[in-house]
Records
---
Amino acid sequence: MQSSPSTPAENAGVSRARAARTSHPVEQPSLKMERNASIDGVSKDRRRKKNRQAQAAFRERQKKVIADLRQDVVHHVQYSQLLKKKIYDMLAGMEAMKSGVEEALALEPPLMSTDFLRTGILEVRSSPAPSSEASHEGF
């Protein structure tokens, strides 16, 4: 295992050795800045272009979503109108049935004879029956 230099003289020697390996340590930051500036400019342009593309894609998706929602609204309005029509038709049918039931209930019930209670045969009399003698007298 290597240990790090512990004396200041050794530290200075190591620093000089590192500096000798790199070319022009003083000029290097300015070159880095120039490279970074040009890279930053290119990367910023790329990022801006990507952002514009992403925004355009988002706007297209939004347009599609809005168009789909409008189509859904039209469909639901038509369905709602159909249901309203069916409800009004059913209400009209119920009113017709109601008036028919009311008319039927307003009629007088048929007279029941005592024979019906014994035999179960209903005799309907709308008016008193003429006697059998009266009908034979005319002849």
---
Amino acid sequence: MPGSVRVARLFGIDVRIHVSWLLIFFLVVISLADTIYPASFPAWSRQKTFIVAAVTAFFFFASVLAHELAHSLVARRFRMSVSSITLFLLGGVANLTREPPSARAEFFMAAAGPATSVAIGVIGVAVAQLAETSLHEAPWLQTVGAVAGYLGPINLLLAVFNLIPGFPLDGGRVLRSIIWSISGDRVRATRIAARGGQLIAGLILLLAGGLVFGLFGEREVTTGLWYGLIAYFLYNAASSTLQQERLSSVVGTVRVGQLMTTDFRTTTTGMTVGSLIRDLVLPLNLRAIPVIVGDRMAGLVTIGDLRKVEQDQWATTPIDAIMTPASDLPAVSPDDNLTVALERFAGTELPLLPVMRGPTLVGLSRPRGASLSDTAAGAPIARGLAGIPRFGRRLRMMVRVGIRFRADRR
């Protein structure tokens, strides 16, 4: 997600924080320190209240991270790669490189998050109750009970909200998996779940309006606006899913080989960074060059790899010391469906995908930037569409490819 930074790596998965997360973290701390804790613990000093509020907010977002980690670890159990987990304004999201391969995988992956939240919630409630009954023996348990007393109920509420049967909420994914399993039609199941997501978004928006205009009693403008933001996010995500499914039907029969370029420049191991920049990168404005040894692909050198080398080391650094080995590259076959290329491309920041037939490089696929079919030798490899979420980039890629393919068939 653009605007996010990596802060940790857990179980081989990057954990990233979006800039919008800072706002929600601040709001949670202020809410706890100004309203919730002063009402429950009036004897606490202002300093202690803010410290406990900050600690509680930290553990709350740790529980959100645990929720997303549960999704991710189950996804990997079903051979789905997870590129990262991002915490942002409305919670967290696990970035999968492809859709679940089966209804069973979808069900268990979707259910893992709420199940984790329920477990954390039950533990939190139990710890809060235990702390309250033992308070006379250890007064410091009041602080523990305060933190647990917030984390327990909030995680239970998080689980309940996520189980609402509307895509892209976990409940919507569970609904999709059930319909998919019964009907055998993933596309139909997705459409039903996404329509459910739009309906849920509409109901939340009505609730938001009622709160803002005081239809349920006292006006609650801040809460109403917050619900409105959630409704907006859900509706957009559900609508994007519907559009993606429609476009998938257009590109579903397109093969990578129909759109790849076979006219490209290569280099070989042993060439120095300086020579590569002088002979290929600068004259041709290339941003990625395959490295070939014999008739096999050894790796890929990108402009990002070259930027990591200091200029005074260009003449002595071989490109095979900085390239991404072929074994670590996501690759596709000319016979692969275009959606396979898009899914594999979603989990990488590479500007192109190698198209392989066995160990031999036969073409390059460039789903990011311009249409796949207009790559030419020496043409600059476009940067990603900065500022647009992955699902938006994928949607725009599919639009370009789908329109072009339809035009070519006429």
